[in-house]
Amino acid sequence: MKVQVLQENLQRGLSIVGRAVATRSTHPMTANVLLQTNQGRLKLVATDLDISISTWIGAKIDEEGATTVQARLISDFVASLPPATVNLEIPDRSRQLKLECARNEASMSAMDAEDFPLVKSIEDGVRIQLEPKAFRRAIERVEFAAANDDSRPVLTGIHFKTEGPRLTLASADGFRLAVADITLGAAPSESIEVIVPARALREVARLVGDSNEPIEMRVNTARSQVLFSLTDTEMVAQLIQGTFPNYSQLIPAQYNTRCIVDVDEFKRETRIAAIFARDGSGIIRLQMQSSNGQAGQLTISARADEVGDNEGRIDAAVEGDAAKIAFNMRYLQDVLGALSGKVALETTSPSSQGVFRPEGESDYVHVVMPMFVQW
Amino acid sequence: MSHLGKRWPRGYTSEHMSDRRATVIHVDLDAFFVSMELLRRPELRGKPVVVAGGLGSRGVVNTCSYEARAFGVRSAMPVGRARQLCPQAAFLESDYHYYSGASKAFHAILRDYTPLVEPAGADEAYLDVAGSELLFGDAPAIAATIRQRVRDEIGITASAGVSVNKLVSKVASDAGKPDGLVAVAAGEEAAFFAPRPIRELPMVGPKTAAALAGLGIRTIGDLAAAPVPALESRFGRQGRELHERALGVYDAPVLSGHGPNKSISRETTFEADEPSRDVLRAVLRGQAERVASDLASQERAGRTVTLKLRFPPFETLSRSHSPGQPVALADDVFAEAVALFERAWAENGCRPVRLIGLGVTNLQERGRQLRLGEGIESDRLAEAMAAVRERFGDDAVRRAAEIPARRHDSF
C-alpha cells in the first residue's frame, strides 16, 4: 500500500472513527484502526464490536492495499503534524507502516488487515431517509432518558418504530420516558420496530453535527444490525434484542393541572434550586398556583438539612387546579435541557407522572415520575 | 402556602389549643441518676450521694442527692469541687446504660396518656393532655396517675407541674420538688409567679439576676410590675420578653417528635449470649421496623446503614454500608442490615452474640423516587404502621418475620 493524503483530512478521519475505538479492549484489533484503499479513496475503520465507524478521505493512491495500526498512536501522531501531505507506505509483507510528513518520518508496528474484525455494510432490508436536523433533535430529546446500567439491556437502547410515514423514538430508564416523533418524507417499504443502543445514536448525532446532508438508515432483514449512512461516513451498530416495554399507557391522557412557563426561566430557577438540593436529597419541589384566570405562578424550591433552602417564582399560565409535585433535580434538569421556548407541565397528583410537552409542538412528550415526599 | 416555614417534621402540636385550659404537664424525675443508684444501693439512702460522669479530676457532677445539695453540691460542678464541699458523700460513676432502660420506661408511661409528649431530656418531658381528659381525668389527675405509676413501675419519684403552658408548668414542677405536684389554674400564672425568687424563672441566669437586682427586682412579681421601657432600655429586646415571662405568658406549644436527629438506631442486649441465626435475624427485623418507623415519623431517610455486634465479653464491631439510594422503608433497612450482619457474623466464626444493633445515619429529607407505573402503596403501609406505633407503642404492630421460626421436631 502506498498513498498520499492531506494531514487535515487524515486527522479529521481518524477523529471520526476514533469514537468507535474500544477503551477497554478485549480483542486486540479493537484498539486499532484499519486503513484501506477503497474506490480511489482511503477508508478508515474502527470498531469495538458493538459499533463500527467507517469514513472515507480523499487520497492519491499509488498502490492499493490495507493495514492496521494502533489507533491512539497514529491519531496522536497525525494530530501533531503540520498541515502538509502525509505519505503512507507499507512495503509488501512488511510489518511496519511508514509515515512521512514534511521533514518527519515515523514507522509504526502494523498488523495484518485480514485479522481486522470485518463489519459488513448493510445492503438488504429496509431503508429510511432522514432529515438530519430533525433526526438529531429527536435523538437529543430521548437519549438522556435511556438507562445507563445493564440490568435491563433493552432500556439502554432507543426504541425505533415506524407507522406509515411516522418514525417514533422512545427511551425509558424506569423512572422517566421520552418519546419523539419524526415525520418521514415517505413511508418506508416495510415497517420496523428495533432497539438501537443509545450510545450508537449519541455518536450519530455527533457525526451529523450541523450538517445538512441527508442520512440514510438501513436495518438488515435479520433485524440484527442498523447502518447510518452519511455523506462520507457510515456507522453500523448491533441492535439490542428483546422487547421494549409497551409505554403508551404510561403517558396519561388527562391532567388536572396544566402549567405553561418559559423554559429559560424554568431552567434558571431549577439551576438555583439544585444548588441547595444537591446537598440533600436532590428533591426540587414545584407548586403551581393560578389566581382566578389571572396570571398564575410556578414556585420552584429546594432545601437541605443543615444547609439552607431556596424558593424562586416564575410567571406561569396555569389551567386547572393548584398543584404540587416534586422531582429529582437531575431528571428535571435533563428534560429542561432538551427544550427551548415554552413548555407545558401537566400533572394529575403529587404521586403520579409529570408530563412535559413543548408548547405548540406535538412531536415530543417527556414523562417523569415524581419523588414521593411529605409536603 | 409555603412548606419552607416549617423546618422540621410536623408531629402533633398543641398550637390549636388556645382556649387556655391548664392541660400542659411538666414531669421531672427527682435526682434521676441518684434515685436509680439508690434502687440498687439502698444502704446509701439518706446519705449524700453524687453521681458524676467520671470520678477523676475532669469528672463533672451529673446529679446529686438532696442530702448532698445541702452541702452546696450542684449539677455540672467539677467533681474535685464537690469533694471539697462534701467529702463524706458517696461518689458514683454514671451508668448510662442502666439509666436508659428506666428513661425509656418513663417516656413510655407518658405516651400512654397522649401522643403529645415533648421529651426535654432523659428524665423530663412536657405533655399536653388536652383531649385526653375524657379518658383519664383532668390534667392534675393525669399528673398524679403518672407520678404514681413512675413510683410503682420504676421505683423512683417524679415531680410534676400543671398549668396552661410549658413555662409555668416547669416552674411549678420545680416548686414541687422532690416528689410533689403543683397545679396552677388557668389565669393564676402571674399570682403563682409573683412571690417566687427571680432565679426560678427559666430564662434568668446569674448575670441577668444580678442585673435585675440592680434595678431592685428580686421576685418574679417585681419583674412583672417593672415598667417595660425600663426593662427594654436595660436588656434590649429581651426586656419585653422577660416581662411577659414574669406574667406567665409563653406561647411555644408542646411538640412531639424528636427534632432533627443525626441518626436513628435500636440495639438489643441479650440476657444470655445468643447463638441462633434465626433469632438474630428476627431481632434485626424488629429493629429495622422500629428504625423505619422513627424515620417515617421524622420524615427522614438515611444514606448509611450501620450494624453493630458485640461478642462476649466486650468485643464490639460495627459495619456500615451506603447504598446508592437512601433507605427509608423497613424492608430496605433490613435488607442492608442483614447483608452486613451475615458477612460480619461469618467473619467472626458465627459466635454467640451479646448485643446486636442497627442504625441509620446521614439522614436527609425523605423522598422516594417512584418508578414508572408504580403506586405508593408501600409508603402508605409504612405510614400506617408508623402511625399505629406512634399511638400505641413499638410493639403494637409487628411483622411476622420478627418472630423467629420455631423448629419443628420431626416425627
What does this molecule look like?
The complex is a heterodimer of chains A (375) and B (411). Chain A is of the alpha+beta class. Chain A has 6 helices and 26 strands. In chain A, strands 5-1-7-8-9-6-2-3-4-17-16-15-10 form a 13-stranded antiparallel beta sheet. Chain A has a 12-stranded antiparallel beta sheet with strand order 14-11-12-13-25-24-23-18-21-20-19-22. In chain A, strand 24 and strand 25 form a beta hairpin. Chain A is elongated. The N and C termini of chain A lie far apart (71 Å). The mean pLDDT of chain A is 92. Chain B is an alpha+beta fold and 411 residues long. Chain B has 4 domains: 101 residues, 2-Layer Sandwich (Alpha-Beta Plaits); 66 residues, MutS, DNA mismatch repair protein, domain I; 57 residues, DNA polymerase, domain 1 (Orthogonal Bundle), CATH 1.10.150; 143 residues, DNA polymerase, Y-family, little finger domain (Dna Ligase, domain 1, 2-Layer Sandwich). Helix content of chain B is 39%, strand content 20%. Chain B is built from 15 helices and 13 strands. In chain B, the strands form 3 sheets. A 5-stranded mixed beta sheet of chain B has the order 5-6-1-7-8. In chain B, a hairpin with a 3-residue loop joins strand 10 and strand 11. In chain B, helix 11 crosses helix 12 and helix 13 packs across helix 15. The longest helix of chain B is centred in the last third of the chain and has 21 residues. The termini of chain B are far apart. Strand 26 of chain A pairs antiparallel with strand 13 of chain B, so a sheet runs across the interface.
Quick tags:
A: 375 residues, alpha+beta, 13-stranded antiparallel sheet, twelve-stranded antiparallel sheet, 26 strands, 45% strand, B: 411 residues, Alpha-Beta Plaits, MutS, DNA mismatch repair protein, domain I, DNA polymerase, domain 1, 4 domains, five-stranded mixed sheet, four-stranded antiparallel sheet, 15 helices
